[in-house]
Amino acid sequence: MSLNSRNLNVDHDKSSWKEECGVFGVWNHPQAAEMTYLGLYAMQHRGQESAGIVTSDGEKLHLHKGLGLVSDVFDSYKWNDLPGKSAIGHVRYSTTGQNLLINAQPLKADVRGKPIALAHNGNLVNSLELRENLQKQGSLFQGTSDSEIFLHLLSRIGGDNWSQTLPQALEWVQGAYSMAWMGVDRLVAIRDPMGFRPLVIGRFSDSSWVVASETCALDLVGAQYVREVEPGEIVTIDSRGLTSTQFKKSSKKAACVFELIYFSRPDSQTFGHHVYEARKKFGESLALESPVDADMVIPVPDSGVAAALGYAKQSGIPFEWGIVKNGYVGRTFIQPLQGMRDLGVQIKLNPQKALLKGKRIVVIDDSLVRGTTSKKIIQILRDAGAQEVHLRIASPATVSPCYYGVDTPEKSELIATQMDLEGIRKYIGADSLAYLTLKGLFKGLGENEETFCAACFNEKYPTRVNT
Amino acid sequence: MSLNSRNLNVDHDKSSWKEECGVFGVWNHPQAAEMTYLGLYAMQHRGQESAGIVTSDGEKLHLHKGLGLVSDVFDSYKWNDLPGKSAIGHVRYSTTGQNLLINAQPLKADVRGKPIALAHNGNLVNSLELRENLQKQGSLFQGTSDSEIFLHLLSRIGGDNWSQTLPQALEWVQGAYSMAWMGVDRLVAIRDPMGFRPLVIGRFSDSSWVVASETCALDLVGAQYVREVEPGEIVTIDSRGLTSTQFKKSSKKAACVFELIYFSRPDSQTFGHHVYEARKKFGESLALESPVDADMVIPVPDSGVAAALGYAKQSGIPFEWGIVKNGYVGRTFIQPLQGMRDLGVQIKLNPQKALLKGKRIVVIDDSLVRGTTSKKIIQILRDAGAQEVHLRIASPATVSPCYYGVDTPEKSELIATQMDLEGIRKYIGADSLAYLTLKGLFKGLGENEETFCAACFNEKYPTRVNT
Amino acid sequence: MSLNSRNLNVDHDKSSWKEECGVFGVWNHPQAAEMTYLGLYAMQHRGQESAGIVTSDGEKLHLHKGLGLVSDVFDSYKWNDLPGKSAIGHVRYSTTGQNLLINAQPLKADVRGKPIALAHNGNLVNSLELRENLQKQGSLFQGTSDSEIFLHLLSRIGGDNWSQTLPQALEWVQGAYSMAWMGVDRLVAIRDPMGFRPLVIGRFSDSSWVVASETCALDLVGAQYVREVEPGEIVTIDSRGLTSTQFKKSSKKAACVFELIYFSRPDSQTFGHHVYEARKKFGESLALESPVDADMVIPVPDSGVAAALGYAKQSGIPFEWGIVKNGYVGRTFIQPLQGMRDLGVQIKLNPQKALLKGKRIVVIDDSLVRGTTSKKIIQILRDAGAQEVHLRIASPATVSPCYYGVDTPEKSELIATQMDLEGIRKYIGADSLAYLTLKGLFKGLGENEETFCAACFNEKYPTRVNT
Amino acid sequence: MSLNSRNLNVDHDKSSWKEECGVFGVWNHPQAAEMTYLGLYAMQHRGQESAGIVTSDGEKLHLHKGLGLVSDVFDSYKWNDLPGKSAIGHVRYSTTGQNLLINAQPLKADVRGKPIALAHNGNLVNSLELRENLQKQGSLFQGTSDSEIFLHLLSRIGGDNWSQTLPQALEWVQGAYSMAWMGVDRLVAIRDPMGFRPLVIGRFSDSSWVVASETCALDLVGAQYVREVEPGEIVTIDSRGLTSTQFKKSSKKAACVFELIYFSRPDSQTFGHHVYEARKKFGESLALESPVDADMVIPVPDSGVAAALGYAKQSGIPFEWGIVKNGYVGRTFIQPLQGMRDLGVQIKLNPQKALLKGKRIVVIDDSLVRGTTSKKIIQILRDAGAQEVHLRIASPATVSPCYYGVDTPEKSELIATQMDLEGIRKYIGADSLAYLTLKGLFKGLGENEETFCAACFNEKYPTRVNT
Q: N or C, which end of chain D is more exposed by having fewer CB within 10 Å?
């Protein structure tokens, strides 16, 4: 959680734990492109590398996308070039490389003469096989993203009504996909049968609808939250209204628990939980499981704030802003200064010496991935005069990569796969270290472990994966 | 206070209460320009419109300045073009207009053949007269800033050793000035006799020194805090070390109390106070003076955070993040969306509906200037379902403009000059409203009102002013 | 012809007669990307809207392309990101629209798992049918360019060795295509059976080769001209050297005569002719066919210069620079000045009053398309005091659009389809007007009309076309 | 001369012979800023490094200036920010350095409370003394340009009516100055007593006037040429019309002969001469003085074109475009290609092999400064197969630097000060080499040497100089 909705560049350990995407769609609104712009802006934390919008004016689709933040891509853009009353949009984090634009979304193509666009959050686990098969049949791939596969499948299956043939296409794919599709005359929202990634429905009126990855986008555009798109559901919105099809059932559900721990904005309702409250609960559970005698609880800003408030509440130890973040970090790139000591963390975070000196500190962070940043934070707290530094992590130890739409480090780079708890404690230099248990996490949430994917913590992948 | 050091664009009411400048200087450091860059970066909150650095290589001064944030101005800048082991730098907020660059600082000029540069924080109260007099004597002004006057005075007085004639020049000026001067062979720091604006000394070693408006800049460059430059003191640093001259004594001291309330970074030590602690104390005093029966205390992010923590602590009412700030605001300009409802506050701040619904809320902000933003914030809290909204302001009512280096609205735009307390309460739509008293403020601070300037609250200007 | 190689923005009537593309390829050169950059730079006049380079390092293809001039697209580009000893490149003129980048070339795709790139000059006449057929079979088109069709055909045909299956793919296409293809291990150059567009081979050594649309590119990279790629020929260059296949024979040849009139650079050898000399000859023929009693011959800069020199030589009338072009036009965009008289031509071209006053002038231009610019030029010559203005056009009247890779106006916008000669003369305000006859043109060239396409003048399209 | 008005980057030897400035002014025109923009655009060849405009709305002066071409500086500029019916403007070439903007013109300052702006072409010869004296009296210089001196002198002299005290200020300065001044209520044009630099008057009507460095600017804005501003004349234009004062008489006149040889646009009337015709005459004189038996005359584009036409006419040898210039050079920066042979000249100029092979060539250029570019051009002509290359220079040997507003190389870098004619011929590799004599130059011009400054050729400086 955060006072800020989150700031990629500041967020330390999570620089290696990247959200893949946010999707948005709007149906029948006089300012469809502008609404999509706002919706994407509210979900900027879900992807900072590219942004795009496709509108439908009833006859044609209009696309603009580019590299950069939402406001960069659409900065001087004339809304006149994105006419129409319906639209979908996408923000994307993507791996580096020169030709990023080719993977920027929404993707748009002519499928059997009909223009279709697609915005996708998630990752398929059988994309390599599908790609090879399609190529053998003569399909020509332009980019490297999983998402292009959906279009090729649809094109190959054919048929006059693309949203009716969609279920056939979806038979082939396995993995995580929360998607918004746009045709000239319809908006379609789809969530995979296990429901890895969030996707919600909102509305302006009975004839004007919104879909979005997070509810914070509904808040900003002023739409009312209706419900989640269900796992395995296709929601079609057109001039006749909203219709729903359950294209596939899965007894196993696999909502990504990391959305609640770190990805989603604290002010979103994700998988039915108020994210901020969930994080506070994680903090409370953590205080119960791993108490410590200390003078103050401080968060790693911004990701540890909610859990720290929970920890403080449960433990009775005062909550303090022990570390101040430079508000201009993230807005601006600080170029490397030749020959200087590493400023990595210091340039972003300044510990409050006067507050910390001689004190016993509990530091709360949401997760621990590589350990390098935690090590630095503990060091600057000690340099600032802290007498004891106890690190408490409001989630379990991360031990395995994600294959469902999160760009995680190699397994060998996850510190918890390389050292035991005491080893990690020594490495990061804390006086004590504790993780929240998975049991404690779900208890805090009041949920059954079975409805979530927690593979990054327990290696129980809900699907086969290519490891 | 803030988790973030502050973010101009987000800060609401204070969009009309602008800090003027930050100054920095470094003597005898192998990376003088880079250190100055970092120092300015740490003080970016003191001015976002222009930035500049002047270095001395012992023979010449080298200047680079430009419009924009520190990292914009120096983005592709080659440090090789700013050679030398000493430097001064400046960040500036300035009024709008096309020719801003001419007023960007440091100013540099040849004074009787010797290159001198100057970085100034503050405003003079007799600049118009001085300017007219100098023009009558043939001085040619390029820009419109007060700061140019110092150079003209020095030029007119003449003499071989400019820092020795400086006191004569300073005889003429009245008002606020905390300054760093750079000659090829010396760094000079000066603070006006009443000490309106902060200025501190730090050091790397016995032969390497730093001066800065705030201690957060010392923290980032890794220098040790030594002491404040005293009111009426000229500190000269050259190859022989640091020497001090008291050029003028004033029995009245006038440290700007608003530095502690809002301007300075929470992690700075300003006028001997840890700013964060001071703000927490203001919140505690406020809770004592104006208690309210409520379910939670929430801050207006980011400026009300520290005071809200103090209020919560004193009152025992739980502290909550009731409002989440979009972390991308400020980084990016959201272009006006034609024909849409005003998104001013909403695009920056999202109230947490699930948390606030049906609750009695105390909202804490650091100050109340025009009232327009408070009105909007209270509205979005009510829209989010809050049952009661009580606004508590951690400083007194602002009733008069500043003439000492803060860009304030006209007196008539200060809401407290137009309405009584009940009128303001109604206008902003709060269930109750209370300010911290001036007495409560100084009590929280543990200081005597006489050593501060609080003219914006009590109209007691420490100097004559041109109203 | 021109002193300058040509300047899109200055060229007046031809703003509606646009070259489509230039292609370049290099095999086995230590600076393949740089050479391609230079080759494209020399052919910048063939396309100003996008530029791209694909290199092969023997294992992978590396692509960079973008919108703008060659030097814009590669401005800050690190050659390190385009490694390898072989490359192809492309410059493109394309129709307006927001998503130009998707049509920028070279195109690159995985064809049955093998990376292939393609740079194409020309247009197909059966692209709509091909596209529809391919879509029916499940092919997914990303862009709207003809060139993508080649890749889909190749992908559909399949086979292990793409350059061996290429002839099968080419069976399907009709129209103009001069192309360079790049695989990881080969460079392939292809020219359609009628040879509409130019394509030449050059070499650095027996193992290092170049292909290019024009010889001016060979000059700049320092390669030696070898020969044209023949109509219907596939030239494959790989580690075993250069091999040639005649994939199709056509008795009809159709070299585009407009390349010699306007498109090619004057210093190129195109279709075996020195373009500058050809244009001078057109001017000489024109002087023989349509003499006039006058004081001086002046060119419309830059396109009429060579023909004007020929006209002056044949007629004995002195050649003069009657019109001076502003050398900064084209480099810079002059924004519309509200409420001012149309500056269209005047801002680019200034007639030399002192030279023209009271004189009888023959103005030479290379072609006459819409007539609007000629009208303006004649007007400014009269305003400058010319007594008589006789317009002579060094090509026949343009009466029909091109379907082979030139972006021409609608037939109804071609002035010669709307008025007879006298009507045009009156419209443009000349004292007399004459075109070069097609017979005179080919006589000047010393060529048989049968080996050229002159459909824009005589409507004899060498293929079926979709009119 | 040139088909193009000229192109800095292409012009070779003259990259070390730089024009200083162009000035423009307009009085009482409803689109004063736009007119000034166009006037500067027409004179862009006189300065490419900065551009600026000051307008008067009758009460205030409004300034915008910046680094770059006219169209860059005013690209997105809203004319609304430059209100008023009168304006002056300036284009500047200036030496390199980071703080160029401080020297960009027009300069604007408050002189005794009155806003005045100044645009200056030329250089003073006693600026160092003046500067020192003014500094001793307390004047503070911001920049390093001569032009600032005028403002300081005026400020020091004082008086209520600045244009009446101007003659007193001008008493002090020596050297070259053609200037436009703007006050809120007047436009003043001044030319130094010897008239080094050109300055002309034009008019729209009896109450609306223009001043400009060259007549090509009058042509573009559509004003009528009236006359030159006379040497030693102050022309004041205000609401009462145009009045003239002769502030100083000088028997010696010193019009810069290089304006006719190279600087001015060929389509300008400078010092009463049509520049294009003058250059043709230089070519004719050159042919008479230094004939050669050859097959063709070719110009170095663009600067040698007019003289080459004259040489061809007089000699009867055919004129040919032997060298084609890439029309995109100058528009775009070609970045250095690591490890490649020097492309300096080749990238700009391509010799027409087919034309030159086996031929005896006379190459005409306007001047020869360092010789390095001529050497390269002769080399590429030989590489193209030319049998003989004879270089003819349409001006005398350059032997001495300019102190009047042209940025020339050091004397020691002028090749004619280092070698005799035969030495230069060998160095550049020509079969023969000849300069036009100074006598021949003035004969061609039909003028008396006494009214011109030809110090760069004969070292007869019309004033004392600081060598």
A: C
